[in-house]
Amino acid sequence: MNIFLAELVGTMVLVLLGDGACANVLLNKSKGKDSGWIVIATGWGFAVAIAVYVAGWVSGGHINPAVTIGFMAIGKLTLKESIPYFTGQFVGAFLGGVMVWLAYFPHWKATDDPDRKLAVFCTAPAIRRYKWNLLAEIIGTAILLMGVLGIYNVHNSIGQGAGPYLVGILVFGIGLSLGGPTGYAINPARDLGPRIAHAVLPIPGKRDSDWAYAWVPVLGPLIGCVLGAVLYQVVFG
């Protein structure tokens, strides 16, 4: 298996399980309907852990362009080496969105609220103020990169076998602590790939895909990942 395919499959698993948790909570007649934010945050934490276990032995399990760019920022990857990561991540995220649509196929028609349908696929702010929404994504992604680098630091032996599990806990913690303002995309592929899937899939009664906001969960993580990775490297070397 090569890096492109590993990142594709890993990111597809991430989005399938993560957006699947959102669908379970948000869509009508689902057995998890209205079970709340804790279920969503838990689902995403587990999704990350499983996805990193799936792909990590081949590619390191980035499953997130922000992680890949963070590694580039501190010299752990070159641009050429990063290309199969990026392509796999975005294709996998789109496919994960399609698989959630298929898994919950009867529930789209049963759900009247188009905002809930969109929220299965991508994030949206609780209070729409773009500069503050952007800042929330920057902070969340910076913490993600600092946590990932700390878990896998060569001096931290606990990260070697339990790394994916610990990254899942990290994402769970970010969701619980920092997810309220924007839904914590902290991953451009996780947000943009399924948003495109929402735009092209024949979902009954859907709204537009909120492209006016779509730049925030892309740009915020791209800034935050560099800040987090560089700060960690400067402080801990």
- Mean of residue pLDDT values: 96
DSSP strand (E) fraction? Answer: under 5%
Tertiary shape: globular
- Count the domains: 1
Order of helices and strands: HHHHHHHHHH
Q: In DSSP terms, counting alpha (H) and pi (I) runs of 4 or more, how many helices?
A: 10
Contiguous runs where pLDDT drops below 50 for at least 5 residues? none
Helix/strand class:
mainly alpha
Helical content stands at over 70%
Corresponding CATH architecture: Up-down Bundle
CATH topology: Glycerol uptake facilitator protein
Q: Briefly, what is this?
A:
The protein is an all-alpha fold. 72% of the residues lie in helices and 0% in strands.
Structure description:
By secondary structure, the chain is mainly α. The protein has one domain (3-236): Glycerol uptake facilitator protein. Helices cover 72% and strands 0% of the residues. It is built from ten helices and no strands. It has helices at residues 3-26, 37-59, 65-73, 79-103, 105-110, 114-121, 130-151, 159-178, 188-200, 216-236. Helix 3 runs parallel beside helix 10 (216-236) and helix 4 packs across helix 9. It is globular and about 50 Å long.
